[in-house]
UniProtKB/TrEMBL annotation:
GO molecular function: phosphorelay sensor kinase activity
Domain Response regulatory: 513-626
Enzyme class: transferase
InterPro entries linked: CheY-like_superfamily, HATPase_C_sf, HATPase_dom, His_kinase_dom, HisK_dim/P_dom, HisK_dim/P_sf, PAC, PAS
Stated name of the protein: histidine kinase
Catalytic activity: ATP + protein L-histidine = ADP + protein N-phospho-L-histidine
Coiled-coil portions: 217-255
Domain PAC: 36-88, 174-226
Lineage: Bacteria, Pseudomonadati, Pseudomonadota, Gammaproteobacteria, Pseudomonadales
Keywords for this protein: Coiled coil, Kinase, Phosphoprotein, Transferase
PANTHER family registered for this protein in UniProt: PAC DOMAIN-CONTAINING PROTEIN (PTHR43304:SF1), PHYTOCHROME-LIKE PROTEIN CPH1 (PTHR43304)
UniProt domain Histidine kinase: residue ranges: 271-492
Native source species: Pseudomonas amygdali pv. eriobotryae
Length: 638
């Protein structure tokens, strides 16, 4: 059972450490109108947190505006717990290896320890605990240094503490000899050997080591042999255990991914089937009612209109599927950069948060550019997110649009004169070091922690600028903020779009010859019958080879070739190129519901009729591409 819950209520229960990454993932999905997958923790009613994986996609309306964000969540708490247990196991194995290696280098072993300097927590093995007269259970759970020092001879304690402090301060191998009270109350000599491990910033982290019995020198070689055997056995089995655990984890994750994939596909196909069944119900009912004898003209027209409207809705469903699969052709368009920045202002306010002030400076002129509008919006969002993170969610973001007469010299390229539109975003953030400035546009480069950035945002801006004939520059100093400027070629204002004409009546073909190329028999026969009823002279070819054979017999019979794009063997596009080569005056009209070739490379200059198409659209485009050729033929016959 579903219920509506305000998004603020959902986000309030997200773990504070996971909130920034979740916000960024949602914003990125909305900006690129695409899919979304993210892992985060949510508080339960009992106050404990559990892990979720959310998967969804952004749905847009016909204007490209996001309208909904459907998705689903999966509880992955057990999987995360398993991963953590594996990590702990591998860490314990690593510590054991270090202890044995130290023991091998030092000689005879009495016991081993690992001291966590951040928490002052000593964990020791049973031999160590016995040597110091400690409870083995406390040694496993961890105890402070002071508890260890209590069993050291009073005369040796000052020297021991000084040696430990010196080793932590200066690093290197730690070696020190002192006396420890036996369980029988007597003292005996030990030698402690270890080293301090540091973080990258120099912070001391851990202090592992071993104890050596220096009163029993005669047993040193025997104990060394045992240590060597233990190390050899550990080395022989360690890789096998780690490989096996890694393989088990990979298999489990793959099963989880496959399960999520099948669930997503099931939800998607179920929703599409539901939509199409509704549409088919309208079409089937209307066709049944059209069979009623003596049906009034008004009702007949109403049923025909219902069928036509339903087909339009079905076409929109397939368009949404192609958009979800990123299979639609992305083509540049002319738009006003200022208008786009202005329309994004509200979303950017939400994106950067209330603690960051936004100043937008737009000129009086609109400043038109030719680029992919969605990619332009995504580039601005990516730069704004980058600025927000640099300011740690507090500061000022300034956005300015202005005209410039040249592309600046950058990345070993000289300045280029011309009319360009510049969109700059400046922030008051932490700035970027000179070393990182050379890398920030590289894919996957990021200075953020794991889960807080993909390293793809600025690389998208860079790629978009280059593909659009522009450039991206950055000026930055550490603690002095950054200025990112996107340059795009300026183009003239496009002419006003004429108002859409009312649907024109079906045009008579007047004997225009049409070679129909369609591998689907039902579609091909219907197209031939339709064109015949409209006054055309159609001839059907079932594939490109048949079409070329018809043309080779007498190409003058045809004024236009109407071909499907996706066919076995030679495609419609390849056929069109061959017709251009052999019969350069013969126009070609393509028909396609979807083609990956068209999505990637466009129509190669051919006219394109999108499936499903109406008879009026078919008649109009055939007349557009074939009327000149038909008139030329008539003129030459005269």
């Amino acid at each position: 059972m579903h219920r509506e819950v305000p998004i603020a209520e959902v986000l309030d229960n997200v773990h504070p450490e996971d909130r920034p990454g979740l916000d960024a993932a949602i914003i990125e999905a909305v900006a690129r109108r695409g899919g979304y997958a993210h892992q985060y923790r949510v508080k339960r009613a009992d106050g404990l947190y559990y892990w979720l994986q959310a998967t969804g996609r952004v749905e847009s309306n016909e204007h490209g505006e996001p309208v909904s964000f459907p998705g689903f969540v999966i509880d992955i708490t057990e999987r995360r717990a398993g991963q953590e247990r594996l990590r702990i196991s591998e860490e314990l194995t690593r510590q054991s290896v270090e202890r044995v290696q130290l023991a091998l280098a030092a000689g005879a072993i009495v016991g081993t320890w690992n001291w966590d300097l951040r928490t002052d927590c000593f964990t020791v093995d049973q031999a160590f605990a016995n040597a110091f007269g400690l409870d083995p259970a406390l040694g496993r759970d961890g105890l402070p240094l002071a508890k260890i020092v209590e069993t050291v001879h009073p005369d040796d304690r000052v020297g021991l503490i000084a040696a430990i402090d010196a080793s932590i301060a200066h690093g290197g191998i730690y070696t020190h000899q002192y006396r420890v009270k036996r369980t029988d109350g007597k003292y005996y000599w030990l030698e402690a050997s270890g080293r301090v491990d540091y973080a990258l910033d120099g912070t001391p982290l851990t202090f592992p080591g071993v104890l050596i019995d220096i009163e029993g020198r005669l047993e040193v070689e025997a104990q060394r042999d045992r240590a060597l055997h233990e190390l050899r056995s550990l080395n022989e089995t360690l890789e096998q255990r780690i490989a096996k655990r890694s393989e088990e984890l990979m298999v489990a994750e793959e099963r989880m991914r496959q399960s999520q994939k099948m669930e997503a596909i099931g939800q998607l196909t179920g929703g599409v089937a539901h939509d199409f069944n509704n549409l088919l119900t309208v079409i089937k009912s209307s066709t049944d009612l059209l069979k009623v004898p003596d049906l009034p003209v008004e009702r007949r027209a109403r049923y025909v209109k219902a069928i036509s409207d339903t087909v339009e809705r079905a076409s929109k469903v397939t368009s949404q599927l192609l958009a979800f699969a990123r299979r639609q052709t992305l083509t540049p368009e002319v738009f006003a950069a200022c208008d786009s920045v202005r329309s994004l202002a509200g979303m950017l306010d939400t994106l950067v948060g209330s603690q960051i002030a936004i100043d937008i400076d737009l000129p009086d002129r609109a400043h038109y550019v030719k680029a992919d509008l969605n990619q332009f919006d995504t580039a601005l969002v990516n730069m704004a997110v980058n600025a927000r993170d640099a300011m740690q969610k507090q500061g000022r973001l300034s956005i300015r649009v202005y005209a410039t007469k040249q592309l600046p010299a950058v990345r070993n390229h000289p300045a280029i004169a011309g009319d360009y539109v510049a969109v700059s975003l400046s922030d008051t953030g932490s700035g970027i070091s000179s070393e990182q400035l050379e890398q920030i546009f590289e894919p996957f480069f990021t200075t953020k922690g794991v889960g807080h950035g993909t390293g793809l945002g600025l690389s998208q801006v860079f790629g978009f600028a280059k593909q659009s004939g522009g450039e991206i520059t950055v000026i930055s100093e550490v603690d002095a903020g950054s200025i990112f400027t996107l340059y795009l070629p300026e183009v003239p204002k496009p002419p006003e779009k004429p108002k859409e004409d009312e649907p024109q009546p079906l045009m008579n073909g007047h004997g225009t010859g049409v070679l129909v190329v369609e591998d689907n028999l039902d579609v091909g026969n219907f197209a031939v019958q339709t064109l015949t009823d409209l006054g055309y002279r159609p001839v059907l070819a079932h594939n490109a080879q048949e079409a070329l054979a018809e043309l080779s017999q007498d190409s003058t019979r045809f004024d236009v070739v109407f071909t499907d794009v996706v066919m076995p063997g030679m495609s419609g596009i390849e056929l069109g190129h061959e017709i251009r080569r052999l019969y350069h005056d013969l126009p070609v009209l393509l028909a396609s519901g979807y083609s990956h070739v068209l999505a990637q490379n466009g129509t190669y200059g051919f006219e394109l009729l999108h499936k499903p198409y109406s008879v009026e659209e078919l008649s109009r485009l055939l007349r557009k591409v074939g009327i000149w050729q038909h008139r030329q033929r008539i003129f030459h016959k005269k």
